[in-house]
Structure formats: C-alpha cells, structure tokens
Amino acid sequence: MQGEYARRGVRLSNKSIKLLATGGTIAAAGEGELAPALGAGALLSYLPGLARLCQVDAEDILSLDSSNIQPEEWRLIAHAAYHALEDHDGVVITHGTDTLAYTAAMLSFMLRGLRKPVILTGSQLPIDHLAGDGRSNLADAFTTALTGQPGVYVVFNHKIVLGTRAIKLRATSFDAFESVNCLLAGTLDARGAHWVNPQPITGEPALQSELCDAVCLIKLIPGTRPALLDALSGLGYRGVVIEAFGVGGLHHLRRNLLDSLGALRERGIAVVVTTQCLYDSTDLSLYAIGKQLGERGVIPAHDMTTEAAVTKLMWVLGQTDDLGEVEERMLRDYCGEIAP
C-alpha cells in the first residue's frame, strides 16, 4: 500500500489528516441488506500504508444511511470538520452516496474561507467487497487531502468535484458523480492529484452553520395546480425552490402558477427558480414569463445545481429574514456555485 501512495505522488510528510466517519455503504459489512457497521478505525485498516505517510486520527460522528442525514446532521458534520481543522491539515469525511451532494454543498457554504481541504467520499459497494470501489475512493480522498488544496470537494472514481457542483447521476455505477456546469476541480491517477479548477477561496476562515430547514423543492409538471404552491405558507415554509421548465418557464393559462409564486413572495416566502435541465442556466430575461417572474421578486438560480440552490437557500435564510438581502445573497457567488 505504501508503494501505491508513492506511485500516486504522495510522499512521506508530517501532515495530519482527520477522518470523520458518518456511515453509508462504504461502512457496510456482512451479507444481505446493507447498513453501516464499520467505524472510522475499521475503515482505516483497509489503507495500511497510510499511517506511514502522515498522521491520521479517526472519529465516528454518525453511523447512518445517508438518506437519514438531514439539516441537523449537516450542522454536526460542519462543526466536527471545522474544529478538526484547528489542529489537522485536512479532513476526510466518509458518507453515503445518496445525499452526499447535498452535504457537500451545505458544507461549502457553512465552512467559509477555508485554508485547508475538506474531502467527502463514499462508495457504491462496501469497503470489504472484493470488487468494490471503497478502498480506491478512500485512498484518493487522502491523496487529495494531502495536497493541501483548500476547499470542500467530492472525490469519487478518480474525480475531484467542487462541493457545490457535484450531482449523483448514477445509482449503482462506480462513476456515480459528475461536475455539472463546471470543469472538474481535478483528477487522480497513478501520479497523484492534478488540480485544474480548485474552489475559489475568499474571506477569513469561519464557521457559519446557522440554517433554516423550512425550505422545500417542487418539480413542476404540466398541469401542476396552484393550490400546491398556495398551501406552502400555511405549512410554515420560508423558502421554496421551483424546478421549472427550460430556462425558467411555467404555465399561467388555466392554472396560474405565476400569481401563486408572486403571492408567496408577498407573504414573505423566498422563491427561487431553477431549471429541470441538468445543464445550462435559468434566464428570466429571455421570455415574457421569466420577466414577469422577476417583477414578482422571484430569484433566478442561474447555473446552480438543484442541490446547491436548496442548501444555499437554507443557509441564507439561516442568516437573514430580509427578502431583499436573501435575493442579494442568493445571487452572490460564495464558493464556485455560480459561474462568473
């Protein structure tokens, strides 16, 4: 294993990396239904040469299928990572794949101005599976962390993806994650990690973990009823992300969604519109309906992923109640989530 790291270009160093385990498939063990079972120390046992290359500390902070990782867990993970960086040179987080992109995006907003790396990884098969991807992904995550490149990243299948640009596109393939509307941050091969498009870092390091979980996501279909949107204010929501058609289209004949979205804004609920299309951007200036949405205070998500738009809205609403300020912050690029 030490030879493997040498081939990756990782040399013996005095760096220290903290492994934070949260569960997921990578930590599953045994036969039958998969459930997290292995802790951080057990995961490290599959990389026996790592301890000869750097100091590694391990901590179990959760043991969950990632479907159960929710806003409360995001705050816990963010606090654990931030405090681990106080006396470590980087953090690796193992996580289930199903909601990994949401966690990576939220950590990107919560962990401001990082000067050290936070790397999330997982696997499609348990780490003890003979033909699995767990060992390779975990080794890649440590290889990436040891470069010292600051920011929050997803490392999977030899790819390095910005935390706000990762999307899980494949349910079982080892090539599960893609970087959407953005170049890969880097790649990994036998010579190590190669950086192409690292996360932009601004400001001083800070933990900003306040969030508002009263945010929902609605994907429109032809014929969506306005009553669905009208009900949101009575349910206590403070924000909604709408996956609209194309660059931000929606119907307003017979079933007038336009007025319903405007009414939500008037009731103090932040409305963000993104596209159902995987690639490209919302553009409310292109069609008449988009301009009418803009006149009603609806906020375009531009080229943000759905995961980034949802987590960013939660994070922004955790900082302010003022809808004007919410709009200004949603339109500001913090960590590469919006193209320049």
Shape: elongated
Between the first and last Cα atoms, what is the distance in angstroms?
41 Å
Helical amount among residues, as a percent range?
25-40%
Mean pLDDT score: 94
CATH class assignment of the largest domain: Alpha Beta
Structural class: alpha/beta
CATH architecture of the largest domain: 3-Layer(aba) Sandwich
Count of helical regions: 10
Name given to the CATH homologous superfamily of the largest domain: L-asparaginase, N-terminal domain
Q: Which radius of gyration do the C-alpha atoms yield?
A: 21 Å
* Count of domain modules: 2
User: How does the major sheet shape up?
Assistant: 8 strands, mixed
Helix/strand layout:
Elements: H1 2-7, E1 16-23, H2 40-44, E2 55-64, H3 71-84, E3 90-94, H4 100-110, E4 111-112, E5 117-121, H5 134-145, E6 151-156, E7 159-162, E8 166-168, E9 177-179, E10 186-189, E11 192-195, E12 206-207, E13 215-219, H6 226-230, E14 239-244, H7 257-266, E15 270-275, H8 288-295, E16 299-300, H9 306-317, H10 323-330
Helix pairs in contact: 3-4, 4-9
Q: What can you see in these coordinates?
A:
This protein has 340 residues and is α/β, with parallel strands linked by helices. It has 2 domains: 2-207, Rossmann fold (3-Layer(aba) Sandwich); 215-330, Rossmann fold. The chain is 27% helix and 22% strand. It is built from 10 helices and 16 strands. Helix 3 packs across helix 4. It is elongated, with a radius of gyration of 21 Å.
